[in-house]
Design a protein that fits this description.
The chain has 392 residues and is α/β, with parallel strands linked by helices. The chain contains 13 helices and 21 strands. The mean pLDDT is 97. Bound molecules: flavin-adenine dinucleotide (FAD) and P-hydroxybenzoic acid (PHB).
């Protein structure tokens, strides 16, 4: 058995684990990160694309902001398309804030590079990771690598291990309250080396279903269309995808669309999920390990970052201020922000998608909501305020 001793054992090398690790490194708090899969596999997962200003500030604080400010695309607004027309939500004008379009894979890559430069320990391809004794006096994590058993003794365990990870599952069921909502559809997404149809994102409501035009750079587009929950990527040739995407956009956007071969195509199912509390003894749940939102509001990654903010401040208070207050309040503070993003993501999803078996009443309500939104500065301000991210 190989043994280690550290202050914080971090399970999961996604954005939440890596960001927490980097902030802790800078504060001189020792940590080890382990992940079930390889570095290259993590970097191949195409996920989120929109960072709130507060998330960018957190990445700056972790010392990894250089490339974001150089290559990221600053967006001061986005388009809401419906009934054949589009309405701009002027985030910058309404709130004074903007968002940064910068892919999650780039964030992860920047954080991995910084960690490597610091010489901090990360262990990939770790099998069967398990947190132990987080309700007792000797919290530790065990796993195997290359058939050899490993054990990390620590002060605290950070469960940054995503929705399917072992940390949340290790908490006794009676101690956890979960809230869940499934949506009866998915998003079929593609990446293509073509210039984006517009310089800003377009969220479109159409009778055939939702569509989203996003991007990764001035040359690379990320597009999504709503599909059924049981749909498969094999059902969608590139041509079928482009035809359906264009059908769901107002004519001026459809006409301007540049199409080309996709080099990534995947389906994500939509759900809302929250587990409470986010702390159990000396173990914390962070990011997707504790909550999932549908991607409509672009909040998943940003919530992972705000959780890290609350946890980092709590750990600083513990190690520097010798006070347990931050740790005691982590769950409550993080959840207060989480629930507001859960609400916004649920609302935006409900507004923008076509639900199976929608009756005429629900349909009219959706139309009225979008019409109201397009005419009311108060309503637009509310959307903009949530989209740019509520304050920490
Ligand atoms: P993750 O990124 O899931 O990282 C968790 C890490 O834990 C992973 O590296 C995993 O390998 C590791 N792990 C799991 N089990 C173990 C184990 N047993 N042992 C060790 N390590 C383990 N958000 C948006 O805002 N916009 C989007 O478009 C969007 N698209 C998404 C598409 C998909 C398919 C998914 C799954 C999520 C998407 N999200 C999106 C959400 C966003 O990507 C997540 O909120 C974000 O990745 C959360 O970061 P995290 O670090 O908490 O979790
Ligand atoms: C993305 O670019 O992948 C993206 C952007 C906005 C969203 C969801 C996903 O709301």
């Amino acid at each position: 058995m190989i043994t280690y001793r550290t202050q914080i054992a971090i399970i999961g090398s996604g954005p939440s684990g890596l960001l927490l690790g980097q902030l802790l490194n800078r504060a001189g708090i020792d940590n080890i990160i382990i992940d079930r899969v390889s570095k290259s596999y993590i970097l191949s997962r195409v996920r989120a694309g929109v960072l709130e200003g507060s998330s960018v500030a957190m990445l700056d604080k972790a010392g990894v902001g250089t490339r974001i400010h150089k290559d990221g695309l600053l967006h001061g607004g986005f388009e809401l398309a419906f009934s054949g027309r589009s309405e701009r939500i002027d985030m910058q004008g309404l709130t004074g804030q903007s968002v940064m379009v910068y892919g999650q894979t780039e964030v992860t890559s920047d954080l991995m590079d910084a960690r490597e430069a610091d010489g901090a320990l990360s262990i990939y391809d770790a099998e069967g990771a398990q947190p132990h004794d987080f309700d007792g006096h000797s919290p530790h994590v065990t796993f195997k690598k290359d058939s050899v058993s490993h054990r990390i003794d620590c002060d605290f365990i950070a469960g940054c291990d995503g929705y399917h990870g072992p940390c949340r599952k290790a908490i006794p069921t009676g101690a956890l309250h979960t809230f869940e909502k499934h949506y009866p559809f998915g998003w079929l997404g593609i990446l293509a080396e073509v210039p984006p149809v517009s310089h800003e994102l377009i969220y479109a409501n159409h009778s055939n279903g939702f569509a989203l035009c996003s991007m990764r750079s001035a040359k690379r587009s990320r597009y999504y269309i709503q599909c059924t929950a049981d749909d498969r990527v094999e059902n969608w040739s590139d041509q079928l995808f482009w035809d359906e995407l264009r059908r769901r956009l107002p004519e001026h956007f459809a006409d301007a669309m540049v199409i080309g071969p996709s080099f990534e195509k995947s389906i994500a199912l939509l759900r809302s999920f929250v587990a409470e509390p986010m702390r159990f003894g000396t173990m914390f749940l962070v990011g997707d390990a504790a909550h999932i939102v549908p991607p409509t509001g672009a909040k998943g990654l940003n919530l992972a970052v705000s959780d890290v903010h609350y946890l980092y401040e709590a750990l600083l208070e513990h190690y520097n201020g010798k006070s347990p207050a931050g740790i005691d309040h982590y769950s409550q503070k993080a959840l207060a922000r989480v629930w507001k993003a859960v609400r916004f993501s649920w609302w935006f999803t409900t507004c923008m998608h076509r639900f199976p078996n929608t009756d005429a009443f629900d349909q009219r309500i959706q139309e009225a909501e979008l019409d109201y939104l397009s005419k009311s500065t108060a309503a637009k301000t509310s959307v903009a305020e949530n989209y740019v991210g509520l304050p920490y």
